[in-house]
């Protein structure tokens, strides 16, 4: 029988958060991610992981306070469900999602929602997996889709109006980011150093409040790239991938 752990204020400092395990360069990002989780616990934020040293977890909270470009009431929003490496194919993802469904029903929520994509993208959920559990697409922006598992006949959540813009007024390369992901902090520093060393204009906008999240001009999932006024991807970039992209 698999053993799981839910992070809380008493154990979070001693537990790993699955991503970037044992990589010293990402320690600052891990610390900031943990502080972010601590600040969200009061909102009903849940980070549940398999009690192993690996990337096997689900993260969710009420959509009203979720750092996602989604407008809705009485739904749970799943940020991330990740089972990687040797843990794949063992039913762990199923158990994590079933726990979330049970939790949402016991909390008398109207359903659960999450963001997927028509084409596979990094840091975005697996559409086919959620379809297997009865999730349906209820809203779409470009390749991004909002999927919902409904428990009643309440109004479905939708993408925020601001997210439908998918564009900016300026032409410079602009990155929106937040501390939802422990990889982000290091890449912001690496990209900043690279841009400065190569005299490239690069603008970072930190999304650090619920108000900012709900008003980001794109489907926001902790990182968003804009170039020449257009949204181009949600891929977290390092110096090499950034160079390839602009070349």
Sequence-ordered SSE layout with sheet pairings:
Elements: E1 4-6, H1 27-40, E2 46-50, E3 56-62, E4 70-71, E5 75-83, H2 92-106, E6 111-117, H3 127-132, E7 136-141, E8 144-150, E9 158-159, E10 173-177, H4 184-197, E11 202-206, H5 210-213, E12 223-227, E13 230-233, H6 239-246
Parallel strand pairs: 5-6, 10-11
Antiparallel strand pairs: 1-2, 2-3, 3-5, 4-9, 6-8, 7-8, 10-12, 12-13
Report on this structure.
- The protein is built from 6 helices and 13 strands.
- With 247 residues, the protein is an alpha+beta fold.
- It has 2 domains: 4-160, Gcn5-related N-acetyltransferase (GNAT) (Aminopeptidase); 162-246, Glutaredoxin.
- Strands 1-2-3-5-6-8-7 form a 7-stranded mixed beta sheet. Strands 11-10-12-13 form a 4-stranded mixed beta sheet, with helices on one face.
- Strand 5, helix 2 and strand 6 form a beta-alpha-beta unit.
- The radius of gyration is 18 Å and the shape is globular.
- Enumerate the strands of the largest sheet in spatial order, edge to edge or round the barrel: 1-2-3-5-6-8-7
For this structure, what is the CATH class of the largest domain?
Alpha Beta
Helix percentage: 10-25%
Distance between the termini: 50 Å
């Amino acid at each position: 029988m698999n053993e799981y752990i839910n992070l809380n204020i008493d154990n979070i400092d001693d537990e790993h958060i699955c991503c970037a395990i044992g990589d010293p360069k990402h320690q600052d990002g891990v610390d900031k991610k943990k502080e972010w989780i601590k600040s969200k616990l009061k909102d009903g934020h849940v980070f549940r992981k398999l009690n192993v040293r690996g990337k096997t977890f689900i993260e969710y909270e009420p959509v009203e306070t979720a750092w996602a470009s989604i407008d809705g009431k009485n739904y749970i929003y799943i940020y991330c469900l990740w089972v990687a490496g040797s843990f794949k194919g063992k039913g762990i993802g199923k158990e994590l999602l079933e726990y979330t469904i049970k939790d949402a029903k016991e909390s008398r929520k109207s359903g659960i929602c999450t963001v997927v994509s028509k084409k596979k993208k990094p840091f975005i959920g697996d559409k086919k997996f959620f379809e297997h559990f009865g999730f349906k697409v209820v809203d779409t922006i470009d390749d991004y889709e909002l999927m919902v598992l409904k428990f009643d006949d309440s109004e479905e959540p939708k993408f925020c109006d601001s997210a439908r813009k998918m564009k900016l007024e300026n032409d410079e390369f602009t990155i929106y980011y937040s501390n939802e992901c422990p990889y982000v902090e290091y890449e912001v520093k690496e990209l900043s150093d690279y841009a400065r060393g190569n005299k490239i204009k690069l603008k970072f906008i930190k999304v650090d409040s619920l108000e900012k999240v709900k008003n980001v001009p794109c489907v926001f999932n902790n990182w968003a790239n804009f170039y020449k006024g257009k949204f181009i991807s949600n891929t977290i970039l390092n110096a090499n991938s950034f160079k390839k992209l602009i070349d």
